[in-house]
Amino acid sequence: MTRETRFTRQLGIELPIICGAMYPCSNPELVAAASAAGAIGIVQPVSLTYVHGHEFRAGLRLIKSVTDRPFGMNALIEKSSRVYHARLEKWVDIALEEGVRFFITSLGNPRWVVDRMASAGGVVYHDVTERKWAEKAIDAGVHGLIAVNNVAGGHAGRLAPEPLLEQLAALGLPVVCAGGVGDPATFRRMLDLGYDGVQMGTRFIATTECNAHPDYKAAIVRAEPKDIVMTERLTGVPVSVINNEYIQRLGTRSGPFARWMLRHRRTKYWMRSIYAMTSMRRLKKSSLTSAGASEYWQAGKSVVGIDSVRPVAELIKDFAAAIADD
User: Fold this and answer.
1) How far apart are CA 275 and CA 150, in angstroms?
2) What does DSSP say about strands 239-242 and 228-231: parallel, antiparallel, or unpaired?
């Protein structure tokens, strides 16, 4: 079963579903399974290398050994770390050499990624949370927009899916809904609203192919929307996590010193670097062990539609059935 949209036509895929890039949960088996099932999986480079232990090119080739269907890569392009940015440029070049032609960029100006794609015939979508960022991304030449709404996991936006689409639809590019989709009925509703596709993260954590710890998956299955809270203490900006005793004890606001550092131009990058290093270690540990029960497990409010841990192919089949009468 297929559902053709501007997004599926650009990428040559069957269903307008993205298995979103997730740190730390995007292992290569999950990426491959999503693409093989007719959706498209997205590589998160730091997750692939640091969390799951693959040399970057070897990790891409592992995915290609499982499926010949397209898959993409996430490029977090913020330039606060020169070392990271130089590494990211190499990852982009390697991905192009290995045949990757779909990139999702975030947190910066995507122009350099778009320029690299031009000669390869690739497609670049950019994460946006409101119209002003979408306009900047369009000025940089992107081919589509990932609309991150206020019920997304990870770093959520501030607008609900409907008003966010109203802001972005008139700009003329394909728009993918990111946030709040965890079940086939909501998938169908987002397409009927006018979205060209959906990006799901939390739903794909609760799959057999994801390497997250079983306790993490079980917590997602148990959780309800009221259990999802935003905390600044993980990365310095609000992140959606499953509420637990640890978070209740610690609170959800950054400490006064961190808030002071983040307010000042000269110190905010230092503070962001500190947050990045500590959060990378903590999230790796909590995703692969049972430690998240006493630390952080990221998830979005799409938990409302997640009632079991399932194989990716079976999951995608159910989503395809939701649009079978189109």
Assistant:
1) 22
2) antiparallel
pTM of the model: 0.90
50 contacts: CB under 8 Å, gap ≥ 6: 280, 284
Q: Which helix (H) or strand (E) holds 94?
A: helix 82-97
Task: Specify the residue for token string 């960022």.
Answer: 133
Closest by CA to 178, choosing from 143, 146, 208, 206, is 146
Looking up tokens 């009632």 gives: 307
Cα separation, 249 vs 245, whole angstroms: 6
Start-to-end Cα distance in the chain:
10
pLDDT in tens, the chain (326 residues): 567 899 999 999 999 999 999 988 999 999 999 999 999 999 999 999 999 999 999 999 999 999 999 999 999 887 667 788 899 999 999 999 999 999 999 988 999 999 999 889 999 999 999 999 999 999 999 999 999 999 998 888 899 999 999 999 999 999 999 999 999 999 999 999 999 999 999 999 999 999 999 999 999 999 999 999 887 666 666 788 888 887 777 665 656 655 555 566 666 565 566 556 666 666 666 677 776 667 788 899 999 999 999 999 999 999 999 998 66
What is the rounded CA–CA span in Å between residue 305 and residue 186? 8
Q: Are 287 and 216 in contact (CB under 8 A)?
A: yes
Name the residue type at position 228. Answer: I
- In sequence order, which residues have a C-beta less than 8 Å from that of residue 119 and are 6 or more positions away? none
Task: State the Cα–Cα distance between residues 179 and 302, nearest whole angstrom.
Answer: 7
